[in-house]
Give the backbone structure.
Amino acid sequence: MAKSTARKKTNTVRLKFDTSWSYDPAPESRSAASISKQYDLFINGEWKKPSSKKYFYTINPATEEKISEVAEANQADVNLAVGAARQAYEKTWGKMPAKERAKYIFRIARIIQEKARELAIIESLDGGKPIRESRDFDVPTAANHFFYYAGWADKLEYAFPNRKASSLGVAGQIIPWNFPLLMAAWKIAPALATGNTVVLKPAETTPLTALKLAEIIQESGLPPGVVNIITGAGQTGSSIVNHPEVDKIAFTGSTEVGKIIQRAIAGTNKKATLELGGKAANIIFEDAPLDQAVEGVINGIFFNQGHVCCAGSRLYVQESVMKQVVRKLKDRIASLIVGDPLDKNTDIGAINSKQQLQNIQKYLEIGKKEGAEIYQPSCSLPRKGFWCPPTLFTNVAQSNRVTQEEIFGPVLAILSFRTDDEVIEKANNSPYGLSAGVWTDKGSRIFNMTRRMRAGVVWANTFNKFDPASPFGGYKESGFGREGGLHGLLPYVNLK
Amino acid sequence: MAVASSGFSLPEFSPRIDQVGVEERAARFTKRSIKNDSKVQGLKLVLNMIDLTTLEGKDTDGKVKQLCYKAMHPHDALPGLPTVAAVCVYPTMVRVAKKALEGSGIRVASVATAFPSGQSSKDVKLRDTKFAVNEGADEVDMVISRGKFHAGEYNFVFDEIAMIKEACGEARLKVILETGELGSFDKVRRASDIAMMAGADFIKTSTGKIQPAATMPVTLVMLEAIRDFYYKTGRMVGMKPAGGISKSKLALHYLVMVKEVLGDDWLNNDWFRFGASSLANDVLMQLVKMQTGTYQAANYFSVD
């Protein structure tokens, strides 16, 4: 009987995760989503061929297969889109009673819910994120943002008491590839609620759900030109930013591009919100609920393959529990499943693009050269596509590049600390300031830490929690302006 | 063994448990989709981990014998099925069960220590346990003194478990925490740590007489306690959620949880059990469905 073998020497004690019972594939059906072979530009409520006559491929990062091709908008197309948005603003949308505007936004939210399954599949196909996340997080949260801001549309006088809020005009919105549909929702919903019209450009590697959203907008009967969705790469984005008829820029993406945008709009009347990079500190104190903290760290860094600007990519652990926490992390990542994004059991999907994979690999090399110890679980990766196993770096110093720079991948740098003051100093010692996490059983410590931390969002005993009603945004090089909540209305209005 | 004055200090450093985090983590296991062959394998494993239980005042020899037959022959219409792990009865029924199960390899578990309340004297609990073991019980399911635990008398709780463990001799000891009476995950964790340190071979959630009985979050807290204890001492401790698990799908979620928290060494009936009586038939129904493609009515499965 196993009883006699039950006691082992503790120095050889190890849990085994990969020997007997395993899960069979449980793929979501691709046929539940309809994707066109080719997508044009959505301008003035219609699908228009690009005047560039050029199209580019969007691929499935898990297989490197082409999914569809989308139009490349040039300056002429941007002019058309901005013109349509301007006209819609002046003729219909800007004058429409707020209560009527709300009806359209509610309708968009409901259609997103109706098409939730299809949107989730396309999001996972185009971007590589696990279907569990696109199904349970991206799509429902996107619908919630529309619902939430639909509610604000006719209540702006309560949002800004004793002041008169008026719309700005045309908003140019540029969104990243990590949460394509959700970022579109974050941008479009508050703009519409406050009476602005929109020209939106999704990222070139993940345009499909935004284009699907264009179909939804068409179906909702939103007046033509209120939302225009055009595709293209950096040049298209630059044309939007520099267009004189655009009144407001909303950008989410890299700090590098954020700086370019800010330079470009200097001296103009354009308002801007920038939501840029991050290198969040996640801090575990010795009195924390350790197993739940470890789970929070896992979700903080491996959610969406670490392609999250607020990812908890720096872990600070109080020295007395360091060993225990690292062991727990290693055990936990042994049970993470890396693979087919459409499989319902997948925890970590494909890296979004080849370029991003190369960037992550560059940092893995840097980390090793800097003397950090790398730990990756033994997991088999598919041969085609872009993959990176969950990675831990231990024996890391504050001055290491893997601690300082944003990697935007499933890579966690683990550092130790001794006192509260020390960890606050280290956590704030970053050019970024988007988010942070604190894990402790002591309520007073939570308040002390959160007050002194220079980060837009600080989570306590949880991480990566989002709600349409709570504002999100950064300090320092993580950008400025807030999205979500009451605060998210402010960048889209003039107050008198 | 000087149990009464062991001077044992309680596990002050039982880590804190965050309720929201535990519930979230437990919910995550239910997102695993178990299909095809892994479902068949999983269901057979579940069947093989069941402690088929009857713990009623009206239990008779005949009832126990029928249960034992079911334990050995869960559903003969479907060949290739494993037996259940054990039959769990009151001490007076141990002899009957032992005889009925002779040679089958199925173990006889007996509840003891003034089950289910535990409200009796040390002496009575000790004799209750020795009686069950002398009657032939392979396993003893004891209850902890929840009143003493709530009163902060952790040494008492520890000593009592250690005493019963000694009385068990070769029989394996399952310690029932009755988590439905403990009130918080912090207390579940502390009770788990005390039980393991005092010598429990298994820790078990519930008697089945109190609601709520086993839940996934409470089981998760206990599995994590087992893992920490294993790393600290090198000694494996088994886990038995009991009560409230009557559907196959839920049982598979539990298997996923055991696999992902403790790993594959715990995925057998030496280290994991389901305390359940109605679960077996639901598992059988699913297994037949997996083979034939259609569900059969409940009437086709024996009720014992």
Remarks:
- Residues 60 and 126 of chain A are 5 Å apart (CA to CA).
